[in-house]
Amino acid sequence: MEQDTSRLATTRPVGPVDADMDPAQDMKTHFRVCRFIMESGVKLGMRSVPVATACVLYHRFFECVSVRVYEPYLVAMSCLYLAGKVEEQHLRTRDIINVSHRYFNSNASPLECDGEFWDLRDSVVQCELLILRQLNFHVSFRHPHKYLLHYLFSVKSLVNRHAWSRTPVAETAWALLRDCYHGPMCIRHTPQHIAIAMLYLALHSYGVQLPVGEREWWQVLCEDVRKADIDAVISDLLQLYDMEAKCT
Questions:
Q1: How many other C-beta atoms are found inside a 10 Å radius of the C-beta of residue 112?
Q2: Residue 204 CB partners (closer than 8 Å, separation 6+)
Q3: In 43-80, which positions are buried (b, 16+ CB within 10 angstroms) versus exposed (e)?
Q4: Which is nearest to 104 in space by CA: 247, 246, 2?
Q5: Which of 49, 73, 195, 218 could form a disulfide with 147 if both were Cys (CB 3.0 to 4.6 A apart)?
Q6: What is the Cα–Cα distance from 138 to 158, expressed in whole angstroms?
Q7: Is residue 237 within 8 Å of residue 176, measured between CB atoms?
């Protein structure tokens, strides 16, 4: 990569300047890198769950190590590669490298298979091994996707079908869920609670009312969720949107 391959080394030196960096700056870095993962995943034709797995791998890795020691975009490329294996949507390293190259150099042609390319390929593979060791080979995760799908089917049966068809509740809930993976909230909360919170926020965004019973609808769908859990997830999501405004 003309702009970034030179800095995509597995490790970087840590100096006095790094020690002065603050957590807010690290959060901005993680947000931007996760946006890179998602955009690259789309260009690579990845399904939503493998992309989500790549983001979780990234957040889990940097939960254990400092972003000032390891190059985050190299880690992201390796997370895409590893996620494809975990979710059985295998990707070629060449495709990941070329998509990443175009991400940073929009007008550039694909990399030639020269020394620079093979050095970068080796870095991606070696970083994949580093991620596996750092996570103790625990790379299978439960995502909120299957829970949200189940909850949407359940809630849809309780709502007037005309009201449901007029409001994009399902599309909004899926979009909100995708946004959750820009930050560590996707590993901070349980998958069921995230799914409930995304559906709750989507319903309230469009003013869709559900029938009132002895228990709240979210307690019927997920017995261990409390209103405080829903509020905590939504609060984290709103902080991510605030981070997005600062990163643009």
A1: 8
A2: none
A3: ebebebbbbbbbbbbbbbbbeeeebbebbbbbbbbbbb
A4: 2
A5: 195
A6: 38
A7: yes
Q: Which of 70, 117, 72 is nearest to 97 (CA)?
A: 117
Give the pLDDT means over successive 10-residue stretches in the chain (248 positions). 43 44 83 96 96 97 91 97 96 93 83 84 96 95 96 89 86 96 95 97 90 87 94 95 79
The one-letter code for the residue type at 244 is E
SS3 215: coil
Question: If DSSP codes are grouped into helix, strand and coil, which group holds residue 186?
Answer: helix
Read off the tokens for 18. Answer: 């790094």
Distance (Å, rounded) from C-alpha 158 to C-alpha 183? 32
Tokens in use for 75? 């880690």
Tell me which amino acid residue 108 is.
Answer: A
What residues does 70 pair with on adjacent strands?
11
C-beta neighbour count of 95 within 10 angstroms: 17
Q: If you search the block for the tokens 């620079």, which residue do you land on? A: 116
CA distance 210 to 176: 20
Alpha-carbon distance of 78 to 76, in angstroms, equals: 5
pTM score above 0.70: yes
DSSP states along 71-118: -HHHHHHHHHHHHHHHTT----HHHHHHHHHHHH-TTPPPPPSSHHHH
With contact defined as beta carbons under 8 Å apart, do 82 and 131 qualify?
Answer: yes
**Structure token pair of residue 199:** 């559906």
